[in-house]
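Bug report (template v2)

What were you trying to do?
Predict the complex of my protein with NAP.

What happened?
Run completed; filing so the output is reviewed.

Input:
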Amino acid sequence: MLIKKVLVTGATGKTGSLVWQKLRLLKDEFEVCGFARSREKVEQLFGKTQGFVIGDILDPMALKSALFGCQALVILTSAIPKMVAPPSSGARPVFEFAPGEMPEMIDWIGQKNQIDAAKAQGIEHIVLVGSMGGTNENHPLNSLGNGNILLWKRKAEQYLIDSGIDYTIIRAGGLLDLRGGVRELLVGKNDDFLTHPPNGIPTSIPRADVAEVVVQSLKESNAKNKAFDLISKPENTPDARITIDFSTLFAQTTPGL
Ligand code: NAP
């Protein structure tokens, strides 16, 4: 079997690090390289920097050299809102983004840089993890730090589709730090899970399950040229069937934004 070389950006992030670790274990199928901006954070998380390239997604040259020889790219970078004023009783928490790291910069320019560099390097497939909610410009996440984060993410998704590179766009529901592989996963489109919530099911999913869907997207051909929303039934839901057949899951997804 041919080994696919994959660059994972945001590889020091909570989901990106899981993807990097999962791919690392699949040595017969993948050669994985993580892309991260902080050497210290890589060392802190993984004990060494082997298997990583240090760089910033705002630096096209760093992306170009990191993508050299790769066949696939997983985009798991994101602007990160930080709470600046702890909520006093009754007050709403206040969020802001670090200087130069507004969503327009990270989720639009930064993702566009990655897609452009991938195209220039002949990358065959990009898996992009984004967020549900982007069809609603009044979604509360857009007002965090005046960042319009979901709108910039959605713009980048459209840019990826228009790039002509095979794509898989995974728009996750609220991310949970819980174990993966024990839930039924559900795919949807157009934020239908938010506008018409399925009976009693929270619109959330463990990061570990999102990471597994990323890995499976790199393996299953029917994940290519698809964009979908992704949530999970809670663990131990009585009628749930734990998702193990990802080909069938991807068969329910569709092309286009
Ligand atoms: P995360 O932990 O916030 O990771 C984001 C990553 O992006 C970090 O590794 C960060 O680097 C990296 N990054 C940011 N700016 C960068 C730059 N200029 N150059 C290089 N790397 C940069 O991500 P997550 O919470 O796992 O979320 C994964 C995705 O799911 C995101 O797109 C998020 O918006 C989306 N999502 C989140 C939720 C939720 O409930 N939180 C729900 C749905 C979807 P550092 O490690 O150095 O900071």
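What did the reviewer find?
The mean pLDDT is 96. The longest helix spans residues 103-120.
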